Amino acid sequence: MSRSANCPPQPSLPSAVRRTVLMSPVLFAGVSTLAQAAPFSSNKPAPLPVGQMPLQVYGNLDTLEFAPVLLAGATREAGRIEIKRGGILSLYDQKSDLPNLKAKGRSHAATNSETQALRYSIANPDLRIIFTVSEGVYRIVARRSAGINTLADLRGKRIGTMPRTSSAYYLHRCLVSAGVSDEEVTVVPFVSGTDKPLAMMKQALLKHEIDAVTIWEPQMQRCADALGADAVSFFNAADYREQFSLMSTQANLNDPILRPRIVSLVQSLVIASEQIRRDPLPARKLVADATRQDINVIERAWPHNTYPGTLLGNLLDTMVEEDVWVAKETGRAPRSRSQLAPLIDDSILNEALRTQWLL
């Protein structure tokens, strides 16, 4: 599907029919989705005991996906969590091989796409995905002047993206859908934290150094704005949506001190997600500050993310299919459904919902 960059898609939150929510069937008998349940209490948790450090929560601060964490940190979890830049390898006090996610110190919970969970869980099998923070509705923005009017026209073109990420996987899926192989395009890497960061994509398009780009927001909106009438956008939300998730480790989930604090964080993320769906402006302001972008750019990019406030039930299906692509990076065999299933843990969300209902 293609559409002018001036008319971005307006993805809606998946309906009750299309979303399978991972909840306890006993606890939620008669309630088909979270949206049908009674609203959560927004009562703020008790202050931390003296001497107890805030929960360390790491993530990519340059994205719209992180909005619920920023909002929770500014409201219900203020003073209880400390937000820092980093990815899921910070859970193990390890350095990421992606420069934009290098972190200092160890996190208790961290966010990343399911792509990075698949990459890093081989060496860290106790990684656990516990909540869907956001769905990224990706797109490709290309130059009409480069002769691009359909996805098939990408054959032989130069496409900017960040390798080994969900956006690179999205590009792969789009090319396959148009009958174009990965080898028939030239991928031009842009990597945050290097001398060729994502912010340079816009200029590369304007200088005709590349013909198309795909990456997460708000950089895509900056590219579309820069091209103006020369921009053509391709998107297919039903084919693939990035599932930007909150993750922790089995050791943290087993810890009697950390677990209730992670449960509290998930409660706050559910509440923040609901607040964003009702009134996104406060979250947009926080994202604009974190990304150092104009709030009007953030507003135009906003439709390319959703905030479901749950743990989406199609995650395992996505991971099984995507691991075939991820496995090629290291030449390993793709994992089976039964091998990937333990990476998803719905017990924290169920506990968060149960505890909230008892308030």
From TrEMBL:
- SUPFAM superfamilies for the chain: Periplasmic binding protein-like II
Which residues are the signal sequence here?
A: 1-37
* Name of the protein: NitT/TauT family transport system substrate-binding protein
Q: Which Pfam families match?
A: NMT1 (PF09084)
Q: What PANTHER family does the record point to?
A: ALIPHATIC SULFONATES-BINDING PROTEIN-RELATED
Q: Where is the SsuA/THI5-like domain?
A: 95-242
UniProtKB keywords: Signal
Q: Which domain of life is it from?
A: Bacteria
